[in-house]
Design a protein that fits this description.
Blueprint (H helix, E strand, L loop, with lengths): L1 H5 L3 E6 L5 E6 L2 E3 L2 E5 L11 H9 L1 E8 L8 E12 L6 H11 L1 H5 L6 E5 L2 E6 L2
Antiparallel strand pairs: 1-2, 1-5, 3-4, 4-7, 5-6, 6-7, 6-8
Amino acid sequence: MARLAEAPVGRLATTSRDGRAHLVPVCFALLEGRAVSVVDHKPKRTLRLTRLQDMRDTGRAVLLVDHYSDDWSELWWIRVTGAATVHDPADVVDGPARAALAAKYHQYREIPPSGPVWSVALDELRWWRAS
């Protein structure tokens, strides 16, 4: 679990109601059995993000975290599959999620994100490592 918690970035996969896959890199933190993230200030074409609509529509997502090295004995990956939620600002998860993200990423301490918090429950963990 330490590798998952310490990883700086993951790839979030969601699917639409009609089965179209959507994959984006994300910053995340672990909080009480969930991977949490937030829509932040980095430039986006729109604030109506596909990942959020997919989570609302299907209630599921996958987070893949991996490490690559030219020394293939150091390779590893962890895949989290679980219930996905876009949290209301009044939700009990919202404040602690923002705090966990600020603790992990100095950029969020400098410019606190104001967008919606989302999470993926750690319902199923699969992993592999080369050694």
